[in-house]
Design brief:
Layout (H helix, E strand, L loop, with lengths): L5 E2 L7 E7 L11 H15 L4 E6 L2 H13 L7 E5 L7 H4 L2 E5 L2 E8 L2 H4 L4 H4 L1 H7 L6 E9 L5 E3 L4 E5 H7 L5 H11 L4 E5 L17 E5 L2 E5 L9 H13 L9 E5 L6 E2 L2 E2 L8 E3 L2 E6 L4 H12 L4 E6 L15 E4 L4
């Protein structure tokens, strides 16, 4: 595969819709289902202000339940489409399609999803892209099944041939592969010119092995937004400062340093003594807006201000995501954008 016959769009490029899966009692959300549904209602309501939302539901009863919850909140249902699919859980960033534009339409990259290296059962999630394709969701798209474990949250692209990822995650999934081998495979499958690796950065409570979408994200081909930590007494401080130094040393394709935007650090959020991974880098870019996680913390407003500076042409909409981090993810993790024209 070469850059001439395919391209991986940046997240800020025009989108058809955002894909989500509604939580239900057979997912890991069962113990706090009502609580997490408040986030899904707020999220879908925010998405449809700017584009369509495609909501996966397990069966007719769940569709009726989700529809009623969204209608009760005044969500524009003309922009909501329900699709039936079985799924183990709702982290569609990692089980959904990674979509390339091609000369004739789109290529849906269907990588193996292994439950983050075998941590959880994931057979239905691994089959999700094929299920949605067979259901007729996509237009002018061919599915390419790739026998290689890769999650969408593990990569970020600038839309111009540069990929950003973390060594910790890819090395955990593929311990026998060298960095050079992994770079070549990713560049080939994802139609990239180069792969930038981060060796530092992690969040307590994160079971993805340091997905880049919790740490650092492109805001444009020459700028990166990243999760900072300004508390020297926090266990994250040395790791995130080392990551900040790595980012400062990276160069654009033109040999220039990236413009860097450091997101604030939320005070520790605990659940029965367990530290939760509250990252502001886990935002979602939609048509004309950035949907950003809020955690009910003082740092929420400062995160919004940083994102407003990094995305001056976008509206910054804060979505309450504190219930999500109970299951170790946030807003970007439960969504997958679909490029304009694919649905």
């Amino acid at each position: 595969m070469t850059r001439t016959d395919a391209r991986l769009p940046a997240e800020w490029e025009p989108q058809s819709a955002v894909l989500v899966a509604w939580p239900h009692s057979e997912t890991d959300w069962a113990d706090r289902l009502a609580e997490v549904e408040t986030t899904y209602v707020a999220l879908v309501g925010a998405i449809v202000r700017f584009e369509r939302a495609i909501v996966c539901v397990a069966d007719h009863a769940l569709e009726a339940h989700a529809r009623a919850a969204l209608q009760a909140a005044g969500v524009d249902m003309d922009r909501v489409r329900f699709v039936r699919a079985e799924y183990d859980d709702t982290w569609l960033r990692d089980s959904g399609p990674i979509t390339l534009r091609t000369a004739g339409g789109f290529r849906l990259l269907d990588f193996r999803f292994t439950g983050w290296g075998g941590k959880f059962e994931a057979s239905r999630d691994d089959a999700l892209v094929e299920t949605l394709e067979r259901g007729g969701l996509f237009e002018r798209a061919e599915r390419a099944s790739i026998a290689f474990a890769l999650e969408g949250g593990a990569i970020d692209t600038d839309g111009d041939g540069t990929l950003l990822t973390t060594w910790q995650c890819l090395n955990q999934r593929h311990p026998d592969a060298s960095r050079e081998e992994l770079s070549a495979k990713l560049a080939d499958w994802l139609a990239q010119d180069r792969v930038l690796w981060l060796d530092h950065g992690y969040l307590e409570g994160d079971d993805t092995d340091a997905h880049v979408d919790t740490l650092a994200r492109f805001a444009s081909p020459d700028s990166i937004v990243f999760q900072g930590c300004d508390d020297p007494n926090d266990s994250h401080y040395p790791h995130l400062r080392a990551m900040a130094d790595e980012l400062a040393a990276l160069r654009t394709k033109d040999g220039q340093p990236y413009r860097l935007f450091e997101l604030p650090w939320a005070q520790p959020i605990l659940d029965e003594g367990r530290r939760l991974a509250a990252s502001y880098a886990n935002f979602l870019i939609v048509n004309g807006a950035v949907l950003a996680p809020s955690y009910g913390e003082e740092a929420d407003a400062r995160a919004q201000a940083v994102l407003r500076e990094a995305f001056p042409a976008h509206e910054i909409v804060m979505v309450p995501c504190r219930p999500l981090i109970w299951q170790n993810g946030s807003l970007h993790c439960i969504t997958m954008q679909l490029p304009e024209g694919v649905v």
